[in-house]
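Quick one:
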Amino acid sequence: MQKEYDIVVIGGGNAALCAAMTAAEAGVSVVILESAPRAYRGGNSRHTRNFRCMHSEPMNVLTDSYSEEEFFDDLMKVTKGKTDEKLAKLVISNTQESYSWMQAHGVRFQPSLSGTLSLSRTNAFFMGGGKSLVNAYYRTAENLGVDIFYDAPVTGVTLQDNKASTVIVNHQGQQHTLTPKCVVVASGGFQADIDWLTDAWGPSARNFLIRGTPYNRGVVLKSLLDQGAESVGDPTQCHAVAIDGRSPQYDGGIVTRLDCVPFSVVVNKHGERFYDEGEDVWPKRYAIWGRLVADQPDQVGYVIIDAKSINLFMPSVFPPIKADSLEELAEKMGLDPTALTSTVDTFNAACQAGQFHPTELDGLSTQNLAPPKTNWARPIDTPPFYGYSLKTGVTFTYLGLKVDENAQVQGKEGVIENLWAAGETMAGSILGQGYLAGFGMSIGTVFGRIAGREAAKYAKR
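Output:
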């Protein structure tokens, strides 16, 4: 690490790689500092599956069309208007061109997967998943001359005279001080720091699982915020989904998510329902269930389905708990059999006759039931019965660095002259709350490319 670089990119996931490749292609020297070991490189990107993309007509693996207006409307629905509209539209309008750029840099796509998350029109799936995308980008970055250091956690970025002056990094037992012309921060959120999560959420956060990388601890984010970089987003807002309660504390990834909620009843530890399981199609609602479970006693929930629904969603990584009766299922799951059967009986009585359509809103709803189930409401009455436990799985936090349309980080005195940010560390500018499937990759790709382009321009002055 004795070499002087034009640009230091902090982080090793999608946004960091997009920034590094773009800058290297502009003819400047670039180094990536990835805190994870090589085998775990890529941050949360290695757990992803798809990229949300606008298009006016069928395009490669994407079917039909998905207009810029519809994309924006979908985002507004899940964020309930809590977004920087200018930045959101910037991301959306650049996704179609980014699709081709991704292919040119090694990414291969495949048609949409079947199951609850059927997204053939809106999302392009990565062949081989996020890890293949990450590996392709690293190959391309290396071919472009980007230097890469693994096991290289950055402990701080020093701001002086409204500029990033030094980057402090530990590598192979030594501390190094780098003095690049500019810095791109793409090192994710703070979700793996459970103490920080607890400060934001309270004691309930101790029961959360971190479905993404254990290396996103917010060290650089905190360093910059402490020095006056402007923050954006709410520390209690995050991409949090309901995952299998048997998942590991860290790094379980996307396979730990359960997609059976729309075809179930979900109860808390007292056997009581607490939310509408059929509120909307799953890609627009799966990311609210982490917060819903977090608000329940002991931060736990339980999914109950029957034999009619067991094959309607993508298979789970852990097999469901199975029983021939609801009473037996309750006992196996540690629930009160009387309470659970009473809840299910009440739900079944509220179900109405109608046509069931598992892949679209079917209006098959309950009547005179609180909370209601507004779609896919069928009686849970066909043995065997199946159950899963649910816990809150945090993917990434929304507190981050405030940026402008050039991805430049904002400070107390305006933009910080040579500091850019991309990916999860600035996504709170666009995601005030809620989440839209595949949109994190859209933000990281578009803003990674912008950050790389703008940093390279600055470095070449």
